[in-house]
Amino acid sequence: MFDLTTRDIKYLTGVGPQRAAILNKEVGIYSLHDLLYYFPYKYVDRSRIYTIREIDGSMPYIQLKGEILSFESVGEGRQHRLIAHFSDGTGIIDLVWFQGIKYVLGKYKVHQEYIIFGKPTVFNGRFNIAHPDVDAAAEVKPSAMGMRPYYNTTEKMKRSSLNSHVIEKMMASVVQLLREPLPETLSPAILAANRLMPLTEALINIHFPGNADLLRRAQYRLKFEELFYVQLNILRYARDRQRRYRGFVFGKVGDIFNTFYTRNLPFALTGAQKRVLKEIRYDLGSGRQMNRLLQGDVGSGKTLVALMTMLIALDNRYQACLMAPTEILANQHYDTIRELLYGMDVRVELLTGSVKGKRRQAILDGLLTGEVDILIGTHAVIEDTVNFASLGLVVIDEQHRFGVAQRAKLWTKNVQPPHVLVMTATPIPRTLAMTLYGDLDVSVIDELPPGRKPIATLHQFDSHRESLYRSVRKQIAEGRQVYIVYPLIKESEKIDLKNLEEGYQHVCEAFPDCTVCKVHGQMKPAEKDAEMQRFVSGEAQIMVATTVIEVGVNVPNASVMIIENAERFGLSQLHQLRGRVGRGADQSYCILVTGYKLSEDTRKRIEIMVRTNDGFEIAEADLKLRGPGDLEGTQQSGIAFDLKIADIARDGQLLQHVREVAQRVVDADPEGTLPENEVLWRQLKLLRKTNVNWAAIS
Ligand code: ADP
Ligand code: MG
Fold it and tell me: CA angle at residue 544 from 541 to 549, to 5 degrees?
């Protein structure tokens, strides 16, 4: 069978071992097949040639035809550049190179006709094009002048003159081979039902589109296929799991739940909380093992839902466990839950790294005998020494800090895997959740408890610090507390810590009557906890901190969140930080402090933050601005995100559709044995073999 995967890229005309090595290393292209799946990132219509006289300052990429009059070498050191004065008879424009000067001088000659392509800009009152594409006019065939593909290249590739142009030429020779079609990778039924372009035709048109319509159909086909196999992989996995494990049946809601509901619950549940509890109760009684993702914005009351779910487990004579990502959070959950269960006969224990010796042993013993009903803790709870009498439910808070592997480890804590409820306050757009957590069902708390005043978010330039501090003083005079957050990232840790330190000094001077505490990740845990405690207890009115406070901390009296250098935070991070305030009944404020000079992206981020408090809207916007690869949680999720052509932010509708198609395949063919689907299962197997991340979820 015609197979391009076995053809080494180095044997392609014009490649050879040296360039092949660079292609291997830089972009993972080893075979002709890999090359063919290296898709263009854009297409430019090159059917039109402009004249130099027409050029104005606001043009996108354009094409000119003319000759180089002379070369000129200008500047020294880093300013050094080569200028070619280029004319088409209507005017002169400068072509400029900062790198690869020797190559340019060796290759291009004066008084020969070239077609050049690039984006004109103005410098010192003259038009110029930096690093243009240059082709001998005689070589460019008029028929090839339509939509031309552009390929991403790295610096290293460019240095070996593996630019977009050269890749295009390589691609053209591979496409020549496709006169013999490649084996189809989707089934005839799916191709027909979705009116998809055949594979080979799609691959030809994705690189060399015959016209805009063919390009659109090629893109659709390839995106469809890419998303289809991601979904088929997840759904088949979910199906296998369902068949392999039965779930504990929590058939009843009993005394513990009801006592809590009628006696202890300090307020009425919100509509969203009720709905989600119903979804959970249905799962727990179904005989299937629950794997549910509970999404809810910060402060939406997830903890309460988790607790009530745990009480259902207890009512059915099972134990429950709640796992939090940090010790501070575990402590806080422990305190909250003990308080909520006050007066009830439920034994709750806390297990973290700092619980040691006899105390630890007593908890471990209690878990084995079944005397401990609810265990709350950090990663410590998944250690091998922790064993339960009958663990029936695991709640994982703040999912993004735990990977799939850790989730899986919890399953081994009982002969049958316990039900799993994963809570996250980082709202994930539905489309992304479906891909990321495709094996999880999703519940959403989309309503905040009543009486909350929406947080007012303001943008301030750092030059207006005095007026900012005046309003802060007013808040403190009214008894409120204030967070001031500084960015801290690994790459600039030293400078960041210095900034934080200076900020702290500055705040101490500006607020001489206040107690100021300081928390950052480089402190020893005990020291950090002590400082945090000073804020929680109300002794300190101001807390200067890095993003260590991002997750979960609950101080209802804190009403002001000041974020310094807000331009350095991502959207979802800003939103998480903002969620630390607005937890009490008072009007809360979030102030984003930046310098004057802001990039377009930053301006957008700030504008969104000021406009809305809706975590889902922010998550969608974040996804659009950053792309899914950077989204929090995706790295550790264990699911591939190197989508080549589909874009989760833009192709949500297609994803939804494709998921349904994949679901129907899995439903109709649970054993994977129907002959008409053979091509699908074979292709999935192949993809799982070549995609390490995919194989990880089996
Ligand atoms: P999340 O974990 O979703 O960020 P929490 O569970 O910490 O939110 O809840 C935030 C606050 O709202 C807590 O102080 C909690 O007691 C309170 N709360 C939860 N549910 C309700 C409700 N239905 N009515 C009023 N207050 C609630
Ligand atoms: Mg919480």
Answer: 100
